[in-house]
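Researcher: Going back to the complex we discussed earlier. I've cleaned up the inputs and rechecked each line, so this should be the final set. Can you rerun the prediction on the complete assembly and write out the structure?
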Amino acid sequence: MRSPGKEPALFGSSRTISRLSLLAAVGIALYVVEGYLPRPVPWTRLGFSNVVVLVALVAFGFREALAVGLLRIVLGSMLSGSLFSPAFLFSLSGGLVSISLMGVIHSQWKHLFGPVGISVFGALGHNVAQFALAYLLYVRKFELLLMTPFVILVSIVMGSAVGAAGCLLLEGMGRIGIGFGEQEV
Amino acid sequence: LTGSAEGSVTTDREQRRVGWGRRLFRLLTPGDVALIAALFVVSAASMVLLRSVLTKGTHCRIVVGDEEVGRYPLSHDRIIEVAGPLGMTTVVIMDGSVRVEDSPCPHRLCVRMGEKRLAGETVACIPNRILISVSGGEEAAFDAFAR
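Model: Rerun complete. Updated structure for the full complex:
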């Protein structure tokens, strides 16, 4: 709780800050571990680390989710050795579009979509942003559109998986009493 | 489950007894289900649409570096050995499609790219500097659209 008369901190109480740091740390760990998994195509990731962004968004809010997401991207890239490489650029653009889209969906259509729906939107935004960037930077070819059905399918599958994981994480956080930001004392 | 049937409030213990599948299903709102269904439809529709927009190729062009080494009709099955900086890449034309059968490059992504048969599709082996592009009757109109 913010005490009256004091300058409001950027992210509320130190309790919130510690929880956001915890989420960011989990996200970074997931990001790095995910990098060791075998991948069918280089440059691709399953995107499981986005679960922390989803949880931060639902439990805390857009600003907090943005902070967790940016921390995850920058520190994760640093640890996996791809900071400021093209892969980092892809990660950053995908992450920013994904978080913004999830934030809009969460604030505007909260009654329509649960965490799974928000996460599917996030995955779709992430993939579309990366394909748009790939088109702009590398392959200026119309054939990239051939990947559309595949991109949508992957977004559905991974978005749902991340959303379901996020739901379970939120539930578990609620159960041990570390969820839902400032409301809960 | 008897406790949860009586009251709307369920305890953690009762909630844990509900199966994982049921719990995950409860996490979906009607909006989520509609979104996923709609995306499946869009995905299937775009697949059909893109297949019909793109036409079958009639020829393939093989370029090594900046130099065109040949143009081959896809109607005639053949095996072509293409020399690149790393060595010989084996290109196979079969049943109206072209693919890289074997390549001396380290990751062999070009082999994994599979067969290409639509106008405008390409197979590239960047390490060996080989580019194989399929072209067809509709190519001119297609290029105009792409620009």
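Model: Worth noting: The first helix of chain B runs from residue 2 to 6.
Researcher: Good, that matches what I expected from the previous run.
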